[in-house]
Design brief:
Layout: E1 6-7, H1 64-70, H2 90-109, H3 118-129, H4 131-140, H5 143-146, H6 158-178, H7 201-214, H8 229-237, E2 243-255, E3 260-271, E4 274-284, H9 287-301, H10 303-340
Parallel strand pairs: 1-2
Antiparallel strand pairs: 2-3, 3-4
Helix pairs in contact: 2-3, 2-6, 2-7, 4-6, 6-7, 8-9
């Protein structure tokens, strides 16, 4: 039986918290010894953390003929005539979307001999090409600063901004695919070749594969499934009266027609002076896998806080041990005095 039971989040999503008690009264449930009975406030999943541009591979050049269209929103480009020049990224992002899908599939297929199932590859591919991921790349490479967009079309909602950012990145991928290697004759490409290949496909594939590896999207897929992170985290910061909650942070995603579901779980600590402190977030094809990924995220990406909690645990353990020794000595002294009397 899994000692760290995952639970559904409250119907209303509260603001992000850390220290302090969580709002709302949960329904009565059965809890394991390592689970707090208070409901944590839900943390924004870690997939939205900004990327360090310095950690990403260099941006491949694109031909001059695509440089304007890639960064022009359809609201700024006039309606394109058949056979006329491309004036916005509208058609480019359509092509880029298709190439991202096939390049991600090829990257995962090469890892097929490691035992990846079709379901797991589908879930991993979704994480590699979804708008949230592409938006992070757009911001990291500064594409969003170059975008020309009409004031009336500028997104005001976060999800709309993510969609625009994703479109721009897809358009850039298409431009890379359509461009020949710099220095070659006719740098810029001539569109679709007779055999169906594109002149810059290999360049785009090499770049995207390195990008996905640098941002952790395909970093661990060749390893065996993680089965130890929860236990490691529990050993590091667990203790008597200390609880680790594994909570669903958002609704699962059902991939219709693919027979898979994707879960999103966060791990929260109550104890050692913390109340429902977020430690990490993860996703997986089951609640258990997502919880394991959340524990791994805490161990890998929240090391400073985990180390501070470990130090607090050590100090408290020393105090407890000292009290036990004091009690034992007092008991022995009492027994000795009684014998002497």
């Amino acid at each position: 039986m899994d000692r760290d039971r995952e639970r559904h989040p409250p119907n209303k999503r509260p603001h992000d918290g850390g220290h302090g008690s969580a709002g709302g009264t949960p329904k009565k449930q059965r809890f394991s010894p390592h689970e707090s009975k208070s409901r944590p406030t839900i943390h924004q999943p870690s997939s939205s953390k900004p990327l360090d541009p310095k950690s990403l591979p260099p941006l491949p050049a694109i031909a001059e003929k695509w440089q304007s269209a890639v960064f022009t929103h359809p609201s700024q480009g006039n309606q394109e005539l058949a056979g006329g020049p491309m004036q916005s990224y509208d058609r480019l992002e359509f092509l880029g979307d298709a190439y991202l899908e096939i390049i991600a599939t090829r990257a995962l297929w090469k890892l097929g001999d490691t035992g990846l199932s079709a379901a797991r590859m589908a879930a991993l591919r979704e994480g590699m090409v979804k708008n949230e991921t592409l938006s992070l790349y757009t911001v990291a490479y500064g594409f969003d600063k170059k975008l020309r967009i009409g004031e009336g079309s500028r997104p005001t909602r976060r999800d709309a901004q993510i969609k625009v950012n994703g479109d721009v990145f897809e358009a850039y991928v298409a431009a890379v695919v359509l461009s020949k290697a710099e220095g070659e004759k006719d740098f810029g490409g001539h569109g679709l070749l007779l055999n169906g290949d594109m002149p810059g496909f290999k360049i785009a594939e090499d770049w995207l594969t390195k990008l996905w590896m640098a941002s952790g999207k395909v970093r661990d897929v060749s390893r065996q499934d993680d089965v130890t992170s929860k236990g490691t985290l529990q050993k590091k910061i667990g203790g008597k009266g200390v609880y680790l909650n594994y909570v669903e942070e958002r609704e699962r995603i059902v991939h219709v027609g693919k027979g898979i579901e994707q879960y999103f779980v966060g791990v929260y600590l109550t104890g050692w002076g913390y109340e429902n402190q977020h430690l990490g977030s993860g996703e997986g094809l089951s609640k258990k896998a997502a919880g394991m990924a959340a524990a791994r995220d805490a161990l890998d990406n929240n090391t400073k806080l985990v180390e501070e909690i470990e130090k607090t645990k050590a100090k408290e353990s020393e105090k407890t041990q000292a009290k036990e020794i004091e009690k034992t000595e007092a008991k022995m002294k009492k027994t000795k005095d009684k014998v002497q009397a």
